[in-house]
Specification:
Blueprint lengths: L25 E2 L2 E2 L1 H4 L15 E2 L2 H13 L2 H8 L35 E4 L5 E4 L11 H6 L6 E4 L11 E4 L2 E2 L11 E3 L1 E3 L3 E3 L5 H9 L5 H11 L11 E2 L2 H19 L17 E4 L8 E4 L4 E4 L2 E4 L3 H4 L2 E2 L2 E2 H10 L7 E3 L2 E3 L2 H4 L4 E3 L4 H19 L1 H13 L2 E2 L1 H6 L31
Parallel strand pairs: 4-8
Antiparallel strand pairs: 1-2, 3-5, 4-5, 6-7, 6-9, 10-11, 12-22, 13-16, 14-15, 15-16, 17-18, 19-20, 20-21
Helix pairs in contact: 6-7
Amino acid sequence: MPGKAAGVAGGEDETVAAPAAAGSGEGPRGPLLDDLMPWSVRPLRTGRPWVTAPDAASLRARWDRLVRASGEERERLFAPTRARTQRSAVAALPGRPGTTGRFARESGPCPEPVRILHGPFDEQWLLPDHRLIDVARPELWRVADDHQLFLVEHGRVPDDPGPAVSVTTLLPDGHSPAGRPGRVRPLYRRPGGLEPNLAPGLLPALRARYGDAVTAESVLAWILAAARPSPAGCVVPLPADAARWADGVELGRELLRLQLRGARGAERPRLPGGQRPYVRAAVPPDPGPLSYDADERVLHLGSGRVSPVPAGAWEFRVSGVRVLELWFERRTAGAGAAGLGVAGLGVAGLEAAGLEAVRPRAWPQEWTSELLELVSLLALLAELRPRLEELADALAAGPGTGADELRAAGVLPVAETARRPASVLDHREEGPDGQFALL
């Protein structure tokens, strides 16, 4: 997540307006994603990086360290911004238990950390306390449930062959490793999988062209397979024939299955026998630099070795950044200094670095397991790249459905109400200091 913010632009429920280019309704050979899935939300902004971590134990130890501190030390560890201080009056996060009293008076137990997607393919943890997050995007929390899928746009980097979008069941923070951060687009506007976040009239128009089997999830699958970045915004070409649509949806469903990583009872990503990565030499407590031996297909983590690692997994990039290197860097940056032990964790340079220095003393075993799964996921995604390129070439060469057809069907222009979140408040949400808003 981003670091300290200078302040907040807009209110807590600020939702992104359509970009200026979206009014054209069409990029190169296809409509814009912003017109197909019109409600989008900007990335979260924590304001203080210590509220996220690759492991939940570090977050609990950071909380305990903070609430035990007092005076100037507590203020420094909190890391106030213009948007959040210990005395900020803040409403509860939707759907999350916890107090809404001023954090300056907080002395209770740590809220249970929640799993989030921190940028592309990196599952991390977050302290779900609105008092600690500069801009938490409550509208996303309101619709996050077992039915929801979040489409995440990646920052555009010219000539980058990586995916333009990805999908997750976790709450995504929308962080982009490079380029301008993209947007988060929930598939459904209401909890329970109700009211697809699609342009009004889009589903009937697509069913008329491709058949009655078109659903909100098949549209999402097509977007995963066909979306590509452009200077005007993310473009989603639509084919003229139903056979091409069916092939693209099938490919998109495979991408969806892999990227959900075992959610909703699906099998977690696994390579076939003989191709699965294993730990050949144990990862040391403080692994050295990450490197890759292409000839031997070995991933080196200092003296640790993982193999076989396909070249496609090592070279897999999003927004021009190699995913495996970024994942490793987030877990090892600043490691290695000696410090006090807190709940099995090291506190290295706490006086200078703040709560971010509270981290595991040694490389946890669960990180190795996560690495093996990530290698498998990236390898399987890389294997699908030739099919994705074939689809892109076919869409570029053949006729398609553009803005004129969608305009004739009444889909475009998109009503402004479709770009705003739906009203989903069917219960009272706790406001600052335990008060409830009148709805």
